Amino acid sequence: MLVVLAVVAAVASMRFGNDAVFGIVGLFVVSWPFERFFRRHPVPIRRLALRTDLAYAASQPALQVVSLVVGIIIGVLSLAWIPGLLLRPFVTSLPLQAQVIGGFLLFDFLAYWTHRWAHTVPVFWRFHQVHHSTRHLDWVSGFRAHPLDGIFIAPIIVLFIAAGIDNRITGALAIIQFLVGLGAHLNVRFRLRPLWPVVMTPEFHHWHHELRPEAHSTNFSIFLPVWDIVFGSYRMPRNERPEHYGIPGPMPDGIVQQLIFPMRGLRADWRGWRQRRKQRRIDSAAAAA
C-alpha cells in the first residue's frame, strides 16, 4: 500500500511538471547492466528491504518538497545570506569560468564538512543514519535518505545564491551531487585505483558505508577525496575491500517507520549536545586561564 501511494504521489507530481520518476527509470536502465555483469556482491535482484528503497525512490517528489520547505527555513535562519551579500560585488565581477571553478571547490569543501558533521553531531546523525541503515548497496539504495538529512546543506545553497553565483552553476552542482551519490552506491567490482585520490568512486564510498567502526567515520568527500586526505579521514586500504554495510544500532523496516524513527528522543539528544559543547567551552577557558 505504501509503494502504491508513493507511486500515485510521484505520478501526480509528474503531472505538474516534476519528471523525477523518469530519472529513476533512466538510472535503472543504465545501472542494471553494470550490476548484472560486473557485480561484486552476489545480491539477488529481489534483495532484503528492496521494497523500502523503491518506496523511497518513488516518494522522491514528495520528500523533496519537504526538504525544500524546511531547507529554505533553515537557510534563512542560518544567516548564511549575510556573508553571501557581502561577497556579491566580488563574485559577480568574476568571469563565468572563475565562478565555476571557485564555486565547485567551495561547494565541495563545505559539503565535506556538512557530511562530516552529519556523522559527528548526534542530532544530525539521527537523520543521516537512515541513509546508512541499508545493508546492501546498489543503484536504488542511494535513494534511502530522510528528507531532513539533506537540509543541513541548505546554508551553503543560500550562501551561493546570495553571493550571486550563476544559478546554472548552483543547479548543476546539486544535480551532479545527486547523480554522483547514486552512482557511488553501485554494486560493481571495479576498484579504479588510479582514481582513488582524484575523485569519489564506488569503492571509496563503499568504505564510508562499511559497518566496521574504524571505517564508518571516513571518506566524507562528495566529489574530491583531497578533503579527506587533508583532514585525516581518508581510508582506502589496498589489501582489503568493504564487505558489510549498515549501522550498529537498530533501524525499523519500512519507509514510514524509518521517517518517524529519528524523532524519538530528539530533544534529549539536542540538550545533551548543547550541554557537552558548553562544558567543552568551560574546560577550554579554564585551561587557557
The unreliable regions are none
Task: State the helical fraction.
Answer: 55-70%
State the end-to-end CA separation: 62 Å
Biggest pleated-sheet summary: none
Overall 3D shape: globular
Number of strands: 0
Averaged pLDDT, please? 84
Label the structural class: mainly alpha
| Binned strand content | under 5%
Radius of gyration: 20 Å
Number of helices: 14
Give the tally of structural domains: 1
Folded structure, characterized:
This protein is an all-alpha fold and about 290 residues long. It has one domain (about 1-265). Helix content is about 60%, strand content about 0%. It has 14 helices and no strands. It has helices at about 1-15, 20-35, 50-60, 60-75, 80-90, 95-120, 120-130, 155-165, 165-185, 200-210, 215, 225-230, 255-260, 265-289. The longest helix has 25 residues, at about 95-120. The termini are far apart. The mean pLDDT is about 85.
In short:
The chain has 14 helices and no strands. The chain has 289 residues and is mainly alpha-helical.
Task: Outline the secondary-structure elements.
Blueprint: H1 2-15, H2 20-37, H3 50-58, H4 60-77, H5 81-92, H6 96-120, H7 122-132, H8 154-163, H9 167-183, H10 202-209, H11 213-216, H12 226-230, H13 255-260, H14 266-288
Helix pairs in contact: 1-3, 4-8, 5-8, 6-7
Name a few traits of the molecule.
62% helix, mainly alpha, 14 helices, single chain, 289 residues
